[in-house]
Design a protein that fits this description.
By secondary structure, the protein is of the alpha/beta class. Helix 8 links the parallel strand 7 and strand 8.
């Protein structure tokens, strides 16, 4: 049976709030999931939370009854610790409005290379040192829509940042994600015969002129610095997105979407 919490100073509530900090997430290997779509996609992916906090009034307003019933079953099976909380306590837990009345505390995902599938024509996105969780989340949404086999994140923002989860609309749980150093990622991709296409404004070849119909990894650089020299040197080809204005760069999520959907276009994917 769920335990009812009425104080924002309860130790369980305070510990969940601590997970907003990267150091605490890494120490505990736990993160937060909030938002109706995000929570549903986490549970649909088979993720069993360590803890779940439910504000019954908000959950009822947001039609989260099916989710609450699932969490109650998991609680009855002693697989999750379920807490009901007041609206005041929930306001302390939720990082944003419209959180669906449910916040999950989940274990870190497996972000090893073993999680990445290897199909006949692999299609990966590599994100080198992303700085903004909103951009990384948007990239995961695009990767999900474009049918990318997996996303490899090399440094930068951690994929378990709750804002990445939220900005991805829960597609963090539908797209295989690996975290690695650039050296590890280059070795893994090249060892499997996957062509590296590095996006850089300094390239002389337009991205639409690069053959991406075979095994390919589209490599995108950080918002502020672009790709590292290590990635540029390892790339099989460098490609540029044409820009006619005064801006010297595109938003990372926008540029990644263009590159990924060029692969979709060339492959004639439906």
């Amino acid at each position: 049976m769920a335990t009812h919490l009425t104080s924002p100073h309860n130790p369980r509530v305070k510990n969940a709030v601590r997970l907003e900090k990267r150091s605490e997430r890494i120490r505990q290997r736990l993160t937060l999931v909030e938002g109706a779509r995000e929570v549903r996609r986490a549970l649909a992916a088979g993720i069993v939370p360590v803890e779940a906090f439910v504000c019954p009034e908000i959950a009822a307003e947001e039609d989260m009854g099916d989710v609450v019933e699932m969490l109650e079953r998991l609680d009855a099976q002693r697989r999750v610790h379920l807490y009901t909380v007041t609206s005041a306590v929930f306001a302390r837990l939720a990082m944003r409005e419209e959180s669906g009345g449910v916040v999950l505390v989940i274990p870190f995902l497996d972000t090893s290379f073993e999680r990445l599938p290897l199909r006949e024509r692999p299609f990966f996105a590599v994100i080198d040192r992303p700085e903004k969780p909103g951009n990384l989340g948007a990239i995961l949404r695009t990767a999900d829509a474009a049918g990318v086999d997996g996303v490899i994140v090399c440094g930068g923002i951690d994929v378990h940042n709750p804002n990445v989860v939220r900005a991805s609309l829960g597609t963090l749980f539908t797209v295989p994600v690996a975290e690695a150093t650039a050296q590890e990622a280059i070795a893994w991709l090249k060892g499997r015969g996957i062509r590296l296409v590095a996006a850089t404004p300094d390239a002389r070849t337009l991205y639409t002129a690069v053959d991406m119909t075979g095994p390919v990894a589209v490599v995108m650089g950080s918002e502020a610095e672009g790709l590292s020299q290590e990635w540029l040197a390892a790339a099989d080809v460098q490609a540029a997105i044409p820009m006619a204005g005064q801006a010297d760069s595109l938003n990372l999520a926008t540029a990644t979407a263009l590159m990924l959907y060029e692969v979709v276009r060339q492959r004639g994917m439906q």
